[in-house]
Design brief:
about 375 residues; alpha/beta; Rossmann fold; 4-stranded parallel beta sheet; about 50% helix; iron-sulfur; YjiM-like; metal-binding
């Protein structure tokens, strides 16, 4: 089992390795569609024959460049993403034939306007609530518009069979990722939270889905075999932490490290980096467009009001993963998650009777000491 770390590294390095792969795919004539959010219906892009790749940047490397055009008090994810785009430091953006965004927040909406000056951008108008027939019709129409856009841009005809095939493939991937996440239910978990994060984060940069699914299943078998051999990576006394809130990235690994170096272990990620999207499958028995509309409209994001789906998922995860505490990660200037934190705190502490803390941060590393102190005190209290 000495090769286990190498397997984890393969997933964590998949974004970097993807730079070469994406160029090779372009050289082979493949179309590339850049995306920014889990609301993007991956199945439609895949059914067009194109490759979907995430453009969300989570590093402070280009924020200074972005702040020449964007406000300093803007979400770091938006500034980082825009900075990588205008500096040509993101090969994924550079090779994208089309950019797809959704109106999840006002900051992103304005960023898409700027991006449209340098790239072909298609914006999906997301309803502000997932409730009611009008919201369903609006989002279904937006998915149909995306389908028509892809067909027109790439000169293809996306059939119902193409979409159904993509749905089956993506559902298989979701199931595999959920099986991997379920390792955190074990006591103690056979992997650390940082290892889990690297796999979940790197999976989106693997485009051969069949190969990826096989790799995930092998990884699960290897991890369980190593645990059964008597090796324990995580102390049985480690406090079990659920992370929720904004998407995590390389720059926010500081929070995971603070948890796991101070007596805790992250057993589950509820946020976009984790199982927020994968926890719900697309219904393969329904009309494929209706099924996709229903699935994506019910992602528990704070841009939705009310956001009962987030509470529902957190409730299930607290029970299934036997969580000792919940940590809510909020990026600076992410107003929807920041405002929602009060409701999440009340729900977690009063209805689930589990301790809660929120951490507001950005992509700089200047607050590492403060985060360590706060997290250490929280875990000691547990």
């Amino acid at each position: 089992m000495n090769d286990l770390p190498k397997v984890f590294d393969d997933f964590s390095d998949s974004r970097k390795k993807g730079f070469i792969r994406i160029k090779n795919l372009k050289d082979e004539g493949k179309k590339v569609v850049g995306t920014f959010c889990t609301f993007t219906p991956w199945e439609i892009i895949n059914a067009s024959g194109a490759v979907a790749v995430s453009l969300c940047a989570k590093s402070d490397e280009t924020i200074e460049d972005a702040e020449k055009y964007l406000p300093r008090n803007l979400c770091p994810l938006i500034k980082s993403s825009y900075g990588f785009a205008i500096t040509d430091k993101c090969p994924y953006f550079y090779f994208s034939d089309l950019i797809v965004g959704e109106t999840t927040c006002d900051g992103k909406k304005k960023m898409y306007e700027y991006l449209s000056k340098i790239k072909n951008v298609h914006v999906m108008q997301l309803p502000q609530t997932n409730m009611g027939e009008d919201s369903f019709k609006l989002w279904k129409n937006e998915i149909l518009k995306l389908k028509a856009k892809l067909e027109g841009e790439f000169g293809v005809n996306i059939t119902e069979q193409d979409i159904q095939k993509s749905i089956r493939t993506r559902n298989r991937e979701r199931k595999a990722l959920m099986e991997f996440s379920a390792l955190g239910k074990m006591d103690p978990p056979p992997i650390t939270g940082i290892e889990m994060f690297k796999v979940l984060n790197g999976a989106s940069f693997k485009w051969d889905k069949s190969a990826e699914i096989d790799e995930i299943h092998k990884l699960i078998d290897d991890v369980i075999e190593e645990q059964n051999s008597g090796k324990e990576k995580v102390s049985k006394n480690a406090k079990r932490i659920l992370v929720t809130g904004c998407p995590l990235g390389e720059s926010t690994e500081k929070i995971i490290n603070a948890i796991e170096k101070n007596g805790g272990v992250v057993v589950c990620y509820e946020n976009c980096t984790g199982i927020k999207e994968t926890s719900r499958l697309v219904d393969e028995s329904k009309d494929p467009i209706d099924a996709l509309t229903e699935k994506y409209l019910n992602i528990g994001c704070s841009c939705m009001t009310p956001n009962d789906n987030r509470k529902r998922l957190i409730s299930e995860l607290v029970d299934e993963y036997k969580v000792d505490g919940v940590i809510d990660v909020i990026l600076q200037a992410c107003h929807t998650y920041s405002v929602e934190s009060y409701g999440i705190k009340k729900f977690v502490t009063e209805e689930k009777n589990v301790p809660y803390m929120s951490i507001e941060t950005d992509y700089s590393q200047t607050d590492i000491g403060q985060i360590k102190t706060r997290v250490s005190a929280f875990i000691e209290m547990l």
